[in-house]
């Protein structure tokens, strides 16, 4: 049962990670010297915030299930 749940959580975590927008623009522009927005404080809003929180929830579930599987 835990194994099946672990597979479902893993697949969901991969899909949610791929759906999130890229945050590497700041690093690339800092290295190339372009207009850098690396130090701007931008907060996630709307769907991005919800997606980020769901991903965090699945990540926590992943680690809890991994510990349960390892103990049992």
TrEMBL record:
GO cellular component, one term: plasma membrane
Superkingdom of the source species: Bacteria
Keyword terms of this UniProt record: Cell membrane, Membrane, Protein transport, Translocation, Transmembrane, Transmembrane helix, Transport
Record membrane topology: Multi-pass membrane protein
Pfam families: SecG (PF03840)
Residue ranges crossing the lipid bilayer per the database entry: 50-69
Subcellular location as annotated: Cell membrane
InterPro entries membership: SecG
GO molecular function, one term: protein-transporting ATPase activity
Biological process terms in GO annotation: intracellular protein transmembrane transport; protein secretion; protein transport by the Sec complex
Keyword check for S-adenosyl-L-methionine: no
NCBIfam families tied to this protein: secG
Role of this protein: Involved in protein export. Participates in an early event of protein translocation.
Similarity annotation: Belongs to the SecG family.
Protein name per UniProt: Protein-export membrane protein SecG
Species this protein is from: Candidatus Fimiplasma intestinipullorum
């Amino acid at each position: 049962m835990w194994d099946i749940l672990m597979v479902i959580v893993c697949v969901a975590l991969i899909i949610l990670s791929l759906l999130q927008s890229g945050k590497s623009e700041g690093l690339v522009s800092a290295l190339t010297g372009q207009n850098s927005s690396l130090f701007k404080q931008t907060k996630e809003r709307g769907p991005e915030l919800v997606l980020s929180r769901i991903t965090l929830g699945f990540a926590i579930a992943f680690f809890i299930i991994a510990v349960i599987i390892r103990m049992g």
